[in-house]
Design goal:
The protein is α+β, with helices and mostly antiparallel strands and about 150 residues long. The chain is built from 1 helix and 9 strands. It is elongated and about 75 Å long.
Length: about 150
Amino acid sequence: MLKLRPGFRVALGASLLAAAGAVFASEATPPKASIPFANHGGIRDWKADRDQGLWVQDIHRQWYYAKLMGPCIGLNFAQTIGFDTHPLGRFDQFSSIYVPGGGGGRCAVQSFTVSGAPPSGKVKADATGGKVEADATSGKVEADATGG
């Protein structure tokens, strides 16, 4: 039988315990998501989640969800936004968005995770009685003035 010195046994046990803790910690944390080259056309589309966050689609059609640090005034109605990608050019949890207009401004991202596609748009009636349908994946709006 192999005899180990008492100090070596303690060191061996501590290192095994630390290794096991690292394995469990890595399983509990979701992988870090990012969109590389976001400053060079890496972002294909986006859709606001009210003023709390937004879904972002990369050029490979993978959707991500960016939860914002707080309410981002005007995001729900914005036609355009800016993506602050920092010097590395990627959009991730350390990035922010800019909403133009009076109430807008810089809105920091709290978390950025891989996501499914955003919920699809619903058919709404406009002021003339026609149908207005928003396409959630392309951001396009189609109007039918005939009411049918």
